[in-house]
Amino acid sequence: MAATTPFDLSKRVAFVTGGNGGIGLGMAKGLAAAGASVVIAGRNKAKAEAALSELKATGAAAEFVELDVLQEASCHQAIDRTAQKFGRLDILINNAGTSVRKPPEQLTAEEWHLVLNTNLTSAFFCSQAAYPHMKRGGGGKIINIGSMMSVFGASYASPYASSKGAIVQMAKSFAVAWAKDNIQVNSILPGWINTDLTKKAREQVEGLHDKVLARTPAQRWGEPGDFAGVAVFLAAPASDFITGAAIAVDGGYSVQA
After folding, report:
1. Candidate list 131, 156, 160, 253, residue with the active-site label
2. This model's pTM is above 0.85
3. Which of 27, 67, 226, 240 could cross-link with 78 by S-S, CB 3.0 to 4.6 Å?
4. Run of H or E including 94
């Protein structure tokens, strides 16, 4: 997987679940700017078309693949289709996510499984599907999107926090298992980021906006573009000796008492 510079992603192919908006699109833009061909995967075709227009306006090679992360077959088919079309798969970002905000005693089994399957089980399916293609290509990079809820707890976020804590531990297990194949597996832990998902959180959790600002040394909410650099770093040769790590991107939220 030699490259001309530590951050060169030219001739690399990246697959980003939930890459048609929010943090996923922010990372996709970063990978594209570094030279990668980027496939954004999701269910919302209209949203994906808008994201593709943004990516292609920068001159990026970008495509959309329809994906239902709740279905194992869909995960395997979408990744196999990508590898067949481009001849390789080098980077997988497991970013698709959802949340149901309720006290734990009010959650239904259906809601619990929806969050766990969307956030965690889909990452297992996609990683498993990507593995043979990366191994065949001599290595690869898998990036799991955790959360500050991988570290902290919240009364309204038990399924979300459970899934995000688990996805970090899953990355560590995969990192150990696949190091022999030159596949590095790491996690990014977003703090409070301005996305559609957190817009709903601000509507549902009273006082959340002001509490986040008060705790964040950067004194602002994060933006999707704040993830372009860390995505490139973890996808590039610069991080070839980093695996099983979890990097917070939170404006200092997690280090302020």
Report:
1. 160
2. yes
3. 67
4. strand 91-94
